[in-house]
Every structure is written in C-alpha cells, then in structure tokens.
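name: query_chain
kind: protein
chains: 1
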Amino acid sequence: MCGTVLPYRAPRRQAFIEMIVGLIIALCLTLISIPASGEEVVVASYDGVINPVAAEYLHDALAFTHSAGAQALIFTLDTPGGLDTSMRLMIKDMTASPIPVIVFVAPSGGRAASAGVFITLAAHVAAMAPGTNIGAAHPVAMGGGEMDNTMKEKVENDAAAYIKSVAEQRGRNAAWAEDAVRKSISATEQEALKLKIIDMVAENIPALLRQLNGKTIALPSGSTTFSTETARLREFPMGARLELLKALSDPSIAYLLMSIGTIGIMAELYSPGAILPGIIGAISLILAFYSLQSLPVNYAGALLVILGVVFLLLEISVTSYGLLALGGLAAMILGGLLLIKSDAPFMQVSLSFLLPTVITVGALVGTVIWMAAKGGRRGPVTGVEAMIGSIGIAKTDLNPRGQIALHGEIWEAVSQTPIRQGEEAKVTSVEGLTVNVAPTHK
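structure:
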C-alpha cells in the first residue's frame, strides 16, 4: 500500500519571500524620497516696522530652525525701517547664529529701508527680488525724533560706524553702506548686485534655492556648503500672539487704546458701580502701555490726549456752552500729532485715522450731552412734584373738600371751584396728603 503524498508548497513559500522583499524595497524607496531634516530650509516672513515683535519673531525662527536640524533660515523682509534697539537685537542673533541666515527682500515692490538695510547687510546671504530697493538708512528715519546738531552728529557717526562694521564682516560694500547712513542713498536690486551690497537677485524662493546650491559661507563654527537642490521648504508662521502684538505696536492703535482706556476709567469714576466701562478702560490702558513702550513716545502728546478726554467728559456735567468740548477735541488732535517723537511717517499716528477717531469721540460725547439736556427739560416723573399737572376723577363732590382718584389711589382734595362727582380735576399743588385741584373745564 502506497503512503500518503503531501502537496508541494514551494511556490507559496517563494511568493511569501517575494512579498517581503518587495515591501522592504518599497520602504527603502520611500525613505530615500523623503529628504532628511538637514535638507530642510525654514522660511519666515516679516512685513512691517522693525520693533520688539520683529526681534522676537526672528529669534524664535532661528531657535526653531536649529531645533529642527534644518540647514538654513530664509527670512523674507519688507520694511520701511523701525527701532534701532530692535534692529541691533536682530543683528546680534544673526551674527551669533550657528545656522546660515538668508535675508530675502521680497516680494516685488518691497523694500529694505532704514533699519532694514542693516539687517540685510548682516545676513550670511543677502538677496533681493526684482522690483525691490534698499537704502535710506539715516538714523533720523529710524525713529530718532528731534535732536540738536551735536546729538545728530553723534547718532549719525555711531550708525555709520556700526553699518561699516556689519558690511565689512560680511565682505560687502562698506563705502556704500556708510553713504546710505550719511547721505540716505538707495539702490535698486540690480544696482545693489553690481555694487556688491547683496549676493544675488532671485524672482522667488525656489529660484533663490537654485542659486544657493553649492555656495559656501563662513559660520562661527566653521564653513558650510548649501545643498538646496532637493531641499524641502518649511514655513515658520508668526503665530497669533505675535500677530496681535504686532497690531498693538501700531501708533494709531496705541492712540485709540489710550483714548478708550481714559474714557473708560473716567466714566467709571463719574458713575461708580457701572463696572463695564472700568473693565474696558483698564484693559485698554494696559494694552496702550505695551504699545507705547515699543514706540518713541512724546509724553506731552500723551498728556494732551488724556487732558482732551477729561475736558470732553467734564462737558457732560459742567455748563461751559461747548468750550470744554472744543478744548477737548483740540487737545486730542494735538496730542495725536505729538504722541510719537519721530520724523518717520510710518511711526506717526495717521491723520486719516486721527481725525475720524476724534470726530467719533466728540459725536458720542455730544450725544450724551444732548440726552442729558433733553432729560433735564422733562418734568419729574416720580415723587410729589410729578403729581402736579396730573388729571384725576372726582369720587365725590368737591365743595370745597372731597376725594379724587389719582394714579390708582384715593386722595383728599380741595377745590376753590365746585367740582361734581365724576368730573375731571387737575392737581395744582400738594400739601402733605392733600392735593389742591381745579376743574379742567372753565
């Protein structure tokens, strides 16, 4: 008798092995196609005035780039200038960075003016997009305010020495950089490239990456070479908190917050217990203080704004025939114009914002005054005085004494002219619990 023959299983085993090999190959191809973190390039974008928010944003972007193991940070910049202190903080971070920082003046139509010139020159790689410009780095345009000739000369010499040092450190045109401070000269992107102010001109970030590939630069830790041919871009957004702080740093917003805060606090002092005006006022004032600490404030302008609000609120309770209101509006306008101690237009409270704000505040105060005057012209609505002139119905004959129904109550009444029961009687005066009345008909 023949033994049992087992089925041949080799093909199934071979298929299983082929499946495992296929999965391994697919996994390897997937890992190869994903760039390592070192091939990433982080992109951070800033558009606006250079202030503490800009300095914090660049600091956070550098820290993120370093922790992510990315090979470089591209910092796209479009700025009219800003604060000298914030600019120097940004340059310190860039100089000490172990990661290359590429400042890219973009998009087309953007600029790197005033403080932006210093920041661009301090970058490891400086680039500009077509249609952009760089220059006009005079210190007055960086939030300087009024200075005498001696102080202007000191500030100008300090800024000139600083920008020359920054340019020489990066091997850029130090003579042009000094003229940008002393003579406020500017250059287009093509002029900047020819003058060796920047390193390259690129239409966009992908074009910038292609030009960066293979370029070697010096870092504090040694030289490094860009490998950006297959680099993956990674955005680093500003975040809601910094976006809010950036908005609060606007001079016009600072003026508005200070006005609202003063109105709220004064309203709470005039009407204790209202609570809501006090809460809004306190929050607005604190936010205004944050805004003003990042701006070159003229305290005379701030006091004029507060004085103007006080005058407007006094107009509600003091009869000045409009003089306090006019004085308050004038003080608020002058305060807004003097609030920021700077010649730079971007650091000033916008006149197109200032006038509508003052007019709106004046209209609100005028409405309150009108309502108060209208309420004062009305007769009393409660108490004994409110009964005078009221019409009642005689419940009994009044000759001269009797009773009348008045406001749902029965009152003792006296009439010098006889009034029959059921006839109307008008109250002429009140004496204790007795009313003097007269007939409504003659």
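note: The radius of gyration is 39 Å.
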